Amino acid sequence: MAERIKLNKVSLREQKQRLALYQRFLPALEARKQQFLMQLGLVRNDIRRQEEALAALLAAIAQWSALFWDLESLMRYFLKIDEVRFSLRNVAGLKIPRFDCVAFADPSYSVFATPYSFETVLARMREAIALREEIRILKEQERILSDGFRKTSQRINLYEQRLIPDCREALRKIAVYLQDQQAAAVGVAKTAKRLSEANGI
Question: For residue 141, how many other CB atoms are within 10 A of its CB?
Answer without folding.
Answer: 24
